[in-house]
Specification:
Radius of gyration: 19 Å
Number of domains: 2
Strand order of the largest sheet: 5-6-7-8-9
CATH topology of the largest domain: Sulfite Reductase Hemoprotein, domain 1
Helix content: 25-40%
CATH class of the largest domain: Alpha Beta
CATH superfamily of the largest domain: Sulfite Reductase Hemoprotein, domain 1
Strand content: 15-25%
Bound molecules: iron/sulfur cluster
Number of helices: 7
Low-confidence stretches: none
Length: 231
């Protein structure tokens, strides 16, 4: 599976640039003016704008000779290149949830970046920073960010509490199963830490996190999770 980020040849002397958009939200913040950068690129280069199923944006029809000029616009507005984004963030995705969706029971889009910050630190500590895994978060069980096919997912169940699912795949071709329920947001990464440690110790060559969870089995993993949660 390819997320089409960074530069790709489009043919006919043109290129397209895959721009990472965290959780699909194009906005300006104090540090990063993503919205302004996209508007400027459309104005300057006449770029086409296409959205991807991974909530990113493809800026198309850029003359090959203007690649550096487009990168300069992104850099000027504080937008990071694809290579500067961690693997776990690059493949993460959340639904809008609060305050946009009236069905939301918990935060998702606004909460996932902080959870990913924690996961980045944990994966770095375990030597798994390059691991490609899909992490998803939704504000309710309707699952609009496709949590049920992800390697690791957090599904909102009540105010600030989530069910953790594991065992999907990067390709999204397998259903995940529940690993732990009603986990407070601030404990999400702590609850999956033992799983990540076990994965690091017992994985087979080339085996992804979801593949590993599927091989070990949801019953055994749930027993681990229950033991971890015990006082
Ligand atoms: S998963 Fe739930 S909270 Fe998120 S957008 Fe869908 S309905 Fe709304």
């Amino acid at each position: 599976m390819h997320d089409h980020l960074a530069w790709h040849d489009q043919g006919g002397g043109r290129s397209f640039y895959g721009l990472f958009v965290e959780n699909g939200r194009i906005l300006d913040t104090e540090d990063v003016q993503l919205r302004t950068a996209v508007r400027r690129i459309v104005q300057l280069f006449g770029a086409g704008v296409h959205f991807t199923p991974q909530q990113n944006v493809l800026l198309t029809g850029i003359p090959d000779g203007r690649r550096a000029a487009l990168e300069a616009v992104l850099g000027h507005h504080g937008v990071r290149s694809a290579g500067a984004i961690s693997s776990v963030r690059r493949w993460s995705m959340a639904c809008p949830a609060l305050p946009t969706c009236g069905l939301a029971l918990a935060e998702a889009e606004r909460a996932l970046p902080g959870v990913i910050d924690e996961l980045e630190r944990e994966l770095e500590r375990l030597g798994l920073a390059d691991l490609r895994l899909t992490v998803r978060m939704t504000g309710c069980p309707n699952g609009c960010a496709r949590p049920y096919t992800a390697d690791l997912a957090f599904v909102g169940r009540s105010a600030d509490k989530y069910t953790i699912f594991v065992g999907g795949s990067v390709l999204g071709t397998r259903l995940a199963t529940a690993y732990a329920d009603l986990v407070p947001r601030h404990r999400l990464v702590a609850r999956v830490r033992p799983l990540l440690e076990r994965y690091r110790a017992e994985r087979l060559p080339g085996e992804g996190l979801g593949d590993f969870c599927c091989r070990v089995g949801s019953d055994e993993l749930r027993d681990d999770a229950v033991a971890e949660a015990a006082p």
